[in-house]
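Figure 2 data, in text form.
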Amino acid sequence: MGRAIKEAEAADERPSGDRAHGDDEPEVLTQAGLGPQILCAPAIPGESLVSQVGRYHVTSGNPTTRDTYTDLFRRDPFQLTFWVPSHIGALCDRLPGRPAAAMLRLLRESTLFPLLEMFTGARFSARDNRENIDAVLQSLPKRMVGAYGWTRLCPLCLKEDEVKYGTPAIHSAHQIPGVLACFRHCTPLLDRCPTCRCPFERKHDLVMTPWHGCPACGANMSDGTSEASVLSADENVVGFARFTAQLLASGGRGASREGLIKLYRTRIRELGLSRGGTVDRKELIRQLVAEFGEELVSHVDPAYRTARLSGWFHILIASTTWEVHVGRHLLLSYFLYEDADSFLKHYRQIALDSTVPIGLRSIRPVIPEAKPKQSDLMLQVIDASNGIANCDLDALWREHYGLLKRLIRQDPDALTKLESALDRNRGRKTNAAEIATVDAHPDDASWAERLRQSVPGFYDSAECPQNGTRNRLLRRIGWTRSSTIDLPRFPQLKRVLDAACESPWHFYIRRILWALAQPSAHTWSRGQIRDSSGVEWHKAIVLVDYCAQRGLPKTANSTSVMAILQDWQIDLNWEGPCPERVFASAGRNYRPRKHDGE
């Protein structure tokens, strides 16, 4: 067993071409499998976790995959093909070393966690107990909403691994979001049987095709006779696969939000894709699509595929860049740097060593002109329209919905005057002098300090929790100005406000914990807890089950909600216990569910 582990550790960790084929490696691997099984025989370099569990199933002799799930995880089958599966904390008992350190090593070697560290701020900081490890795993990103979710295989890799290691394997680099080709052989990847079109992956089950063949027709994927094994993939598709595979194997640590933004913006300026101090968004998108083609961009980025580009450039805003899915980060990084070595060099020099923070981008430019009277809504709307190039009514409704609604309520005939004013201003291009940021207000620091002192009392209140929105937090400190027009003149206050607002899921779990902490809550049903909290039914049930799994402290009361969340490592930006799940919209946004074929 020891010799086999050393053999695996000595293998080249970087994705590259063919390695020397040792004649004794299959025998070593077989001998290792006869010893005490930690998980399975030593991992093949670049092998994914679902592959290791699949090999364990083969060598264990379990009659069903459900038995293997019970052996390893002591629970019913679940999805092991997520970026970071949630319920793998049970493997700590089978891994050498401290549980938390062993789990971190498994994540970095057998999942896509290294890419999440680099681009989404993912961190695995857990204590050495099973409950805390499970909670941290649950909080990590699981998958890209709307992305293709099938396990992908390379027939040539399966054949080579079987010759070299005595067994085929599923590689993590083939499962990176948007990857369509093998980084070694430049051939298209398969996600289903080429003979009968049966998908390799089934929901909540292991992927056993590399060892057992197609579950429907029995075709062997490693025989090298499939069409994919002789075709060559597009040059950009192969380049993207090699780029992402090298990043996955690099072991780079995570950068700050500001460092990541500086990395992107520095290269954008070097490529001439900026105008003054702003990014030329249309030109960047145009060149990116022209370089890679519609098909690749649509496959990597579901937002582009569905024409939802309004939030595409959140990737260049410090406060939201970590929330952008990893596929878009990889696509933009590949477009800007092309070569993985060049990207990693600049990543270490700029993103990791950056000491000068990038200020948060203003939501919209502010004109340094005399501020209109608060009572004159028409002047406020016209002033706001000056910050939008080629502004029309649709743009105003999108950017200043509340302001425009108040104007119409005050004067139903105001639209005629407003359209005339917009016609005069349409086509005017804002220059650098016009959009320069105004000087900070002299009371900025005092307002920021007032908000900073007010926030703890707001979240620790014993009353039924209220949503920590921008307007509510501002009203709490006596702010009577317009947040749309005036807030850009208060940069310190804006930074404190951005950090103090909570996500919807953080608000929901505060409501649920508050309800659970009531004196008589132990006698309530889940429906009564939901009614007391006021949270939407489906989300409430998910959160009640989550709290039951975590275990509510016996000393919990209505003032200890934030202390409980802090102990559970849930911050204000929490995305919920199941960020991959899509809930139906309630209220006026509800749309009936459509079935296939409708």
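Caption note: Residues 444-500 form one domain.
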